[in-house]
Amino acid sequence: TLSGLTGLTIGGANNTSDVTMIYGASIAGPINIYGGAVYISGELTTTNATTGNILIQSSALSGGGTINLASGRGLTVNQSGNSVYAGLIQGSTSVLTKNGGGALGLAAANTFGGGITLSSGAIGAYNNSALGSGALSMADGTTLLIGRSVSTIANNIAITGSATIGLDSAV
Length: 171
Fold this sequence. Notes:
Elements: E1 2-3, E2 8-10, E3 19-21, E4 25-27, E5 31-34, E6 37-40, E7 44-46, E8 54-58, E9 60-63, E10 67-68, E11 74-79, E12 83-85, E13 89-90, E14 95-99, E15 103-106, E16 116-118, E17 122-125, E18 136-138, E19 143-147, E20 157-159, E21 164-168
Parallel strand pairs: 1-4, 2-5, 3-6, 4-7, 5-8, 6-9, 7-10, 8-11, 10-13, 11-14, 12-15, 14-16, 15-17, 16-18, 17-19, 18-20, 19-21
């Protein structure tokens, strides 16, 4: 387990090599992960409520590790490909921002409460609580995919422009 650091960067902005995180990391400040496919199976935690953001820039985010965000901090996923993340994302007032043309599916009963900003691409809900407890804001041209096992989505949804909400029969 990595701990005691004030920040962590893995890869660089142009890194296309795959990144696998199997060990936990508890970092005060920002965590930036740049890679091709990013796989997280360990616990990834930020502890500083001022600097504890996480950025993941990848072709696909997958795995089953827990992502713990410091209160009020953000997880930004810039993703060009399609994948499903099965790990838990939590943080009482933390926000998820999805950028990039790919689709990020969420399969866990996530507990982050600050909402989701879907700026581009698609986000998939494959659990009734996959989208956390905050509102989902969908930008023009984005897509919300709902898995066939989902029976209820309790989140408020705000749509700017023309967005699509569809059933994902593959998951």
